[in-house]
Amino acid sequence: MGETGTTSGGKYVEPGGEFSRDQRYIATRITADGSDGYPVEPGRYRLVVSRACPWANRLIIVRRLLGLEDAISMGVAGPTHDELSWTFDLDPDGRDPVLGIERLREAYLARHPDYPRGITVPALVDVPTGQVVTNDYAQMSLDLSTQWTAHHREGAPQLYPEPLRAEIDEVNAVVFADVNNGVYRCGFAGSQKAYEQAYHRLFDRLDWLSERLAEQRYLVGDAITEADVRLFTTLVRFDPVYHGHFKCNRQKLTEMPVLWAYARDLFQTPGFGDTIDFDHIKRHYYEVHRDINPTGVVPLGPDLAGWLTPHDREELGGRPFGDGTAPPPPPPAERVDPAHTPLR
């Protein structure tokens, strides 16, 4: 997930070793029955994200597909951060207009004054108290599907349908280990051995995914599920960031025909491509990870026009939203800067 570091000499690589992600999160849940003390309540919580972060991007997509924009407001942090926290530098006066804070760190410390770990996005914040509720990104997106059903839009898709949950969980587990986190294991490897192990594990899994998706349009079942959301946010960042910056360079996504067509299919689906800000994505990785890219120079490429080319995946059948419907366009205040996306 979006980890804090520093924009001047931050440490992400473990010298001589293998990258290990701290997966201890604030596990409090917002549930329909309020069993953790935070009941589902429209207007009470604010989702804080950065469009740069793949883990936060999942929540942006799921919230959009389910039509929860009116129920859960969204604050967008800037694409870079310093050693303390993500900041709201996109907002007037550098403050989130709802929470009134300059740094996401303030919401974490409001609940846990001695919070010992990184200040991460996505995070759900309780607006009345200004306290972070949870940053457990994997559970957060599932809870949007299962706990907020009373506030889903009419025609919302089933992203985590009960009959498919075991298979979705199984696919998600290997995709997380080898792909979502696998690109980071390549990029932050501190030794040649650790890098090569991560590299082979990543591309072996991408080959496995290519085989799986060669004859079926989506990862599980015949409609988009949580599994597709989780894979997409890594694939969409592959050529702009992971191929070069993280040395995941056996092939570009554009050189993997099945995965490239699959990614374009999703990108052109309402709720996916319209959440992607390529400028924020590139600025985050290349400016923040100074131990990998000391100059902070951000590459101008790649050309984005290919994202809008025909993918022909509809020939495999499937219905993007199952028995549901496409979401409406994003609210004007949440639209990506047209200069940062090919979807102009």
Named at the architecture level, the CATH assignment of the domain at 162-340 is: Up-down Bundle
Which descriptor suits the 3D outline?
A: globular
Note the main sheet: 4 strands, mixed
Q: What is the beta-strand fraction?
A: 5-15%
- Strand tally is 4
| Rg on CA atoms, Å | 19 Å
Note poorly predicted spans.
4-9
Helix tally? 10
Oligomerization status of the protein chains: single chain
Outline the fold blueprint.
Layout lengths: L44 E6 L3 H13 L6 E5 L27 H7 L11 E4 L4 E4 L2 H10 L18 H16 L1 H6 L4 H22 L12 H10 L2 H5 L14 H11 L10 H11 L56
Parallel strand pairs: 1-2
Antiparallel strand pairs: 1-3, 3-4
Helix pairs in contact: 1-3, 1-7, 4-6, 4-7, 6-9
Polypeptide structure, described:
The protein has helices spanning 54-66, 105-111, 137-146, 165-180, 182-187, 192-213, 226-235, 238-242, 257-267, 278-288; strands spanning 45-50, 73-77, 123-126, 131-134. The chain is mainly alpha-helical and 344 residues long. The longest helix is centred in the middle third of the chain and has 22 residues, at 192-213. Helix 1 (54-66) packs parallel to helix 3 (137-146) and helix 1 crosses helix 7 (226-235). Strands 2-1-3-4 form a four-stranded mixed beta sheet. The chain is built from ten helices and four strands. The protein has a domain at 162-340: Glutathione S-transferase Yfyf (Class Pi), Chain A, domain 2 (Up-down Bundle). Strand 3 and strand 4 (131-134) form a beta hairpin.
